[in-house]
Amino acid sequence: MTKKHLLLFKYGGNAMTNQPLRKHVLKNMCDLKEKGFQVVIVHGGGPFIKQTLEEVNIESEFIDGQRKTTPEAMEYVEMALKGKVNGSLISTINAMGHKAVGLSGKDGQTVIAKKRLHPHTKNGKTEMIDLGQVGDVTSVDTSLIELLLENDFIPVITCIASDKNGNDYNINGDLFAGHIAGALSAEQYIILTDVDGLMLDKDNPASMIHELKVAEINHLKEIKCIQGGMIPKIDSCEVALEKGAKLARIINGTDLEQISALFENQKLGTIITI
Prior knowledge:
The chain is an alpha/beta fold and 274 residues long. It has helices at residues 14-17, 19-34, 46-55, 71-95, 143-150, 173-183, 217-222, 230-243, 256-260; strands at residues 6-11, 38-43, 61-63, 66-68, 100-104, 111-122, 125-140, 154-158, 160-162, 168-171, 188-193, 211-213, 248-252, 270-273. An 8-stranded mixed β-sheet has the order 5-8-2-1-11-13-14-12, with helices on both faces. Strands 6-7-10-9 form a 4-stranded mixed β-sheet, covered by helices on one side. β9 and β10 (168-171) form a beta hairpin. α6 runs parallel beside α8 (230-243). The chain is globular and about 50 Å long. The two termini are 29 Å apart. The mean pLDDT is 93.
């Protein structure tokens, strides 16, 4: 049997919080499976973490856009991601007649993490800040994911992993997805966001960048074309490509036509290659 082309979707943001939209997005991903692709979905869930922490009165502190996560908060982060979000995605996909399996990086030691120290610059001085239970990916073992794919399951993976000593970490969903896409040598690593792609001028849709080489990324960061929430997305594309993915693409997950048109319109979104 020839190996099917593998697509890894990073799913999050507004395409996830709106219920009818979520159903459509998941259906479009699953339709690609029916066209003969292997599909892996990796998700975060910032809005759900925020809601869960508010419900239990745990304050969130952010440093440069990174959520500081105490051991107490970590318990609720896992509850939100694995319990609420992952569980609900699985139910929706299964109801469509597919077989989805919910995982985190902890399952089968798929992802091993380490504590992330965040470089924070203030008054020209950079110090490394401990963000608590926030981690970086150190290694990926794809054997469990591949086993599921071979048996016709859709793996749905959330961005939590443990270190070698069993300490749990919350990992940036984009970077987590990029590492997995690379380790699986994905044919395409597709980030669903709520814009059509990367714009040279974010307020001008006509300035869309259709094709980008990894070597051009630093320049675009310097001129502030890549900023804010787009930074981890682009960084994750770079990780995915360097680790073995063939192509990375940023598309608008809230535009339902875009996922269905992935293989009809090669110009769709922003394509990033080595």
